[in-house]
Amino acid sequence: MRILKGKTILEDFNFDKIINNYDSVIVDIGTGNGRFTYKNAKSNPNNFYIGIDPVAENMTEFSSKSIKKPAKGGITNALYVIAAAEDLPCQLDNKADNIYINLPWGSLLEGVVKGNSVILNNVVKIAKPPKADVEIWFTYNNLHEAGEMSRRELPNLSVEYIKSNLIPIYQSCGIDIVETDIVTNEDLKKFDTQWSKRLGFGRARDVFRIKAVIKK
Asked: Among 69, 72, 110, 126, which residue's Cβ finds the most Cβ atoms within 10 Å?
C-alpha cells in the first residue's frame, strides 16, 4: 500500500494497530485534494479517516497539513492512500465503517453511474462486517458537462434512472441502496469541499445522493 505523508510516498505501510484505537474508520474514495478527509478528521478525533486518490499531487496540501505539529493544525487520525478505486490495496479489506464517494469525476464517476462491477466490488471488499454505510454524491448535466457525457456515454441522471437501473446492479454486488434524493446548492455549501462549494455557489443544478448499506 502506498501512503502519502506530506510530500513523501511510503511503501507497505501497516496501519492495523493504529486504527484499532479509534471508534470508526471512514474512507473517502476519490478524495481529490483531501480536504474532506482532513476537515472531518480534525472535527472528529475519535474516528480515523482515510482519503484515497490515484494522483498523489492532488493530496499534497492536506497531507502536508496533517503531519504538522498539533498547534499548527496537525492531526494523527488521517491517512492518505495513493490508489484508484479500480485497484484498492488489500490492506483496506474489511476496515471501513463508513464509505464516501463525494462528487466523483472521470472513471470513478462513470463507474458510479453505470454500476461498474470492479469498483462496486472493491467498495464491498473494504466494508467492515457486519455492516457498513455508504454515501455517494454525484452530478453532471448537458448544460455544463456535455463533452464528458458524450465521451463517456453517461446516462441522463434522474431518481427514476437510479431506481430502475442502479438499485438492481448495486444489489447484485452486495450494496443495498436504501435512500435516493436530490440535494440543494445549500447542502453542497455545507459539505465543505472545494468542489462542493464551487458548485454550491454556482447555478442551481441537481445533485444526486445515494445512501446505501453493505451487510456481510
From this structure: 126
